[in-house]
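The authors assume throughout that readers already know how a fold can be written as discrete tokens. A single example would do more here than another paragraph of explanation. An entry of this sort, consisting of the sequence and the corresponding backbone structure tokens, reads as follows:
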Amino acid sequence: MFSSRLPRAVVRSLGLIGLSLMVSAAAWADRMVVRPDRETGVYWAGETVPWTVTWDSDTDQPAPAATYLFKLGGMTEAGSGNVEFVDNVAHLEAPIEEPNALLLEVTWTEGEETKTARGGAVASPERIKPAAEAPADFDAFWQAKVAELASVPSRPRLAAEDGGRAGVDYWQITMDNIRGTEIHGQLARPTAGEKLPALLIVQWAGVYGLEKSWAVDRAAEGWLTLNILPHDLPIDQPQEFYEDQKAGPLKNYWEIGNDDREQSYFLRMYLSCYRAVEYLKSRSDWDGRTLVVMGTSQGGQQTLVTAGLHPDITAAMALVPSGADMLAPSVGREPAFPRWYEKTAGRDAAAVRETSRYFDAANFAARIKAPTLIGIGLKDTTCPPATVWAATNQIKAYTEIVPLPVSGHQDFEGSQQPYVDRVYQGWLPALKMGEPAPVALTGPQAHRALLDQLGIDKLRPGADPRDPAAPNAPNYDEAKANVYPDLPDALKSDDGTPVRTAAEWTAQRRAEIAEHFEREFYGRIPDDVPAVTWEVLDTIAETKGDMAVTTKHLAGRVDHREYPFLEVTIELSVTVPANAEGPVPTVLHFGWPARILALFPQPEGPTWEEQVLAHGWGVATIVPTSFQADNAEGLTQGIIGLTSHGKPRGLADWGALRAWAWGASRAMDYFEADPAVDSDQVTIEGLSRYGKAVLVAMAFDERFAVGFVGSSGAGGAKLYRRDFGERVENLAGGGAYHWMAGNFLKYAGPLTAADMPVDAHELIAMCAPRPVFVSAGSPNVEGQWIDQRGMFMATAAASPVYELLGLRGLGTDVYPAEEETVASGDLAWRQHAGGHTTLPNWPAFLDWADRYITTPSAVTP
């Protein structure tokens, strides 16, 4: 949703905003809760936003009489009326026709006190534009100001003090600024370490001193830290001193000179930030590589300014930044602090508004070249979300946006925690280590980034199963399905040489096919994937069906010392018959965690686990999404993100299917060390997308003895060259491309399936000589999207490879009827009469698999 010219992502407060700007926390803690129906608060322009207003009372007191007011852009009235509660709950709605923010205010009276509760939403925020462009001479003006600053020697004066923390050196620092003013701040660094990354912390609005911990805490983490005041004031005076300044010369300081760009109070403030960066660069203990700036509110404003003004900033982090889109009221949106648009008393209003364009954070944002992290409160009335997005959308560098749907301007009850986590668990640790800023692209952004690497503007649309009349409706006419009937010959090498012996297949052809699937389809596993250490979390005795069993729950901890702020753990359970006297054959199932399965009704009859255990085997379930999410947003997280250190994928890098198969291989590593599991007799099984993963795992890890593939469809056993149901374009599109390598996208434009060097039958053939059972449900119940016939055809087309190796193939290319088991060979097929499940096919599979799996007599029922 948050697309831009370059990648832009949506995913402990850094301090209070300053007494002069604080919104009463009590107002936010009231019992009136106002929220849109979508947890993220993010919508498309043109949508109508439903809201729920709840009187959250811990007494029997009913909801009071209340009124509501919708404000587009936080300013323009878009509906009002009385709130009608039923059992302390009311429902409201309002449209957002254009890209904008929407604020809902609910007001009521308690005694003599009027209270207001707010909720926020935003529509198509990536399309919100500033109210005005930068002045034509914006760059020339600021180049002149930087030159004026350069003409003034900085003369840094450091006074060493006790920072209050062992292992940290601390100084107060003063430097000269323009026109006889000074910069005051504090500098801290770890005592150990010769070359350090540098961090500039800039402050929120108000008149106050600096707390040592603001610099010392970051220094203790390994940063050369400079923290400066926005004012020409000492940093360590009693509170009374700052109160006097606030009531006297610095009263409403943000309005000083706001009608003259040469006299604006923000002129020296902005230049002090620039000088602070120059000072950090000049220090011999700076590592010469990392220069980060961060701040909140007015500090966020200064952050955007600094990153836009100074070309050497390498990363910027701004929480609820002020000072953006200063002319917002001219287009009906609420302005942000310092609200110059309306601060015109006794001044020329036109001059004030023209001056604001030179100090607008949005205009500096357009000049930022460093990765930037932004936190935006959706019900913020001090720095309204539309103003922040207007600025953020100008940034041409990678930008990660963290919408804060329940946050105003303050961090009340953890409302800003998602941003804080991203700063302290993601960005700062990575940057400190010299890593790039960890990327958190949305699915469409990651998709666009791959297309850009391929030089492709757009792809052909996939089949749309929702509208049979659509031009791109799926084809379910078998007469039109085989548009590319000529399949690649699995037994012909890339140079055209026939493969006539098993040795030639093993030595050359299989490796060629594997290379194609790795490079073009599923991606490569990096060479340096960290090791996995298995931990048994618990061992329990239980009963499944009528059988007493022993179950172990395990966690596979992936070593993350090379990238310590991304933790990856594989969730695995292993269950074996309690009476087993030795290792038993085991089925490894790609599945869901038990806590999720418990939420859904269970089918009648024995479960697949009960059937397998009754057969004398063990069962194991690996949860793929525990170590790699089933979405594109997760491509910079999980095991893929850990190995890439949070960077976006290259074209041949692995997708989720290969990552899930990697996890299965790590489970196999564990089985080889578990005396309860016969690791030479492990079957791997999965349904749907996990059926795809079964084939990938079997193809690339020859330790799996048998494969049971359920309704795998495109990306699994279905032939790509068939146009029936799901198409290549669907796999390459926004909803599924994360399963595949980036290179796969080109087959949805400009190339087609006919250009593919291999097809699904060769993925099945890579499993040889190990037996594979391919299954599906009825097209009348399961639907035809997965193309049951196309999977059967691929299984049949893999048969020549099995036969070359002295095995038996499927034995037929005639499509069988439902409930007919084709199981005379080492490739088997069955289509049951039910829906999207393997459950009805388990008895037939187990009967067939008994040819290959030997069950110890001690556990035979």
Notes: The chain has three domains: 8-127, 138-443, 502-595+607-859. Confidence is low (pLDDT under 50) at residues 1-29.
